[in-house]
Amino acid sequence: MYNITVIHGDGIGKEVMEAAIHVLGALDIQFNYNVALAGNECFQKTGTTIPEETIKLAKNADATLFGAVTTVPGQKSAIITLRQELDLYVNLRQVKSYPGTKSLHDDLDFVIVRENTEGLYIGIEEETEDGATALRVITRKASERICKFAFDYAKKTGRGKVTAVHKANVLKKTDGLFRDIFYDVAGDYSDIGTDDRYVDATAMFFITNPHMFDVIVTTNLFGDILSDEGAGLVGGLGLMPSANIGENSALFEPVHGSGPDIAGKGISNPSAMILSVVLMLDYLEEHDAACTLENALIEVLSENKIVTKDLGGNASTMEMAREVRNKIERK
Ligand code: NAI
Ligand code: MG
Fold it and tell me: How far apart are CA 245 and CA 253, in angstroms?
């Protein structure tokens, strides 16, 4: 029995979450769901985008599922607050081709492990006489734990190589440190291959030779940019799940936002949320269930019949979710 905190959020976040919970009902695992509020509708009701109660429930859960929220300028970001409060230092995104989608290749499968707490996103900026400066912070502790996570992840998932991505030729001190720590950590994982690449070259190789990658580990900003480039490689937002992982907590969410242009119509694609659930099941070491769920989704995508509009069909979010559930239940 797992305690799962469920944060629907706003717009299509609510729709894809309902779909994902429906599909989870087909698995032979007991889940106890604690529903918690966050986002803009929550702000209208409670005066905050992220109540203390939500943070507490997320901290105490075995895992948290997060739909998507609408962010309004000036309001506190619910997702960034959760990442900080739960110290979710890993942002993991997979770049994986699925059938029936607009992927540029039909056989891509690599992951990007992005450091999520420092780098250029530490948010320390300062106006100067003739412009502004931003601080880029790379620490030993954060570099070590993210590299260690990448190697452990490779080991656990049977992946053969970890590539560090940096710009140490220019950022000699910060990225020099990151690269050195990467090779120090690599010393403990002699059975896993290693290499390192400059971020600019990596951006090009995503286009010219993406099959060379297996696990990528990188700093915050580079990871952010490369993971969106990766999303482009495999057909865009509707199918991109992500995991935010820390020592004691984890949160799983689709990469897309609250889709205000389609919210309320019941046509959002539930795949990214369902794949986020697959990542959650893997995190909980329920690997068989993760496999069952992913395969059911793959079946529905390959048949390309009961799928949402963005995938070329005309099914609703819940019709597609019910079809995925049917595939599991018919086995
Ligand atoms: P978005 O991801 O919500 O939408 C971009 C485009 O992709 C829209 O045309 C949308 O209809 C489409 N789309 C997204 N997900 C889809 C799905 N599952 N099925 C079918 N089509 C889908 O990004 P946008 O429009 O830039 O942001 C909308 C709101 O979401 C903003 O308030 C933004 O701040 C917030 N946002 C929240 C995130 C989060 O909660 N983690 C992440 C990204 C944006
Ligand atoms: Mg981004």
Answer: 11
Question: Which residue among the candidates 167, 196, 282, 327 is catalytic per the annotation?
Answer: 167
Question: Given this model, what pLDDT does residue 328 score?
Answer: 97
The catalytically annotated residue of 10, 175, 196, 224 is 224
Quick: pLDDT tens for 148-192.
999 999 999 999 999 999 999 999 999 999 999 999 999 999 999
Q: How confident is the model at residue 123 (pLDDT cuts 50, 70, 90)?
A: confident
pTM of the model: 0.94
Residue 259 falls in which region: left (phi positive, over 0), alpha (psi -120 to 50) or beta: left
Q: How confident is the model at residue 235 (pLDDT cuts 50, 70, 90)?
A: confident
pLDDT for the residue numbered 245: 97
Q: Which secondary-structure segment (H or E) carries 147?
A: helix 140-156
| CB of 150 shorter than 6 A to ligand 1 | no
Question: Residue 268's closest CA among 309, 303, 313?
Answer: 309
Query: For the residues 30-50, what does the mean pLDDT come to?
Result: 97
How far is it, in rounded angstroms, from Cα 134 to Cα 313?
Answer: 46
Residue 114 CA to residue 150 CA, distance in Å, equals 9
Q: Do residues 297 and 279 lie in contact, with contact meaning Cβ atoms separated by under 8 Å? A: no
Assess whether the C-beta atom of 310 lies below 6 angstroms from ligand 1.
Answer: yes
For each of the domains in the chain, give its residue range(s) and CATH number, in order of start. 1-89+239-331 (3.40.718.10), 109-233 (3.40.718.10)
Pocket of ligand 1 contains residue 259 by CB under 6 Å: yes
Answer yes or no: are the C-beta atoms of 250 and 64 closer than 8 Å.
Answer: yes
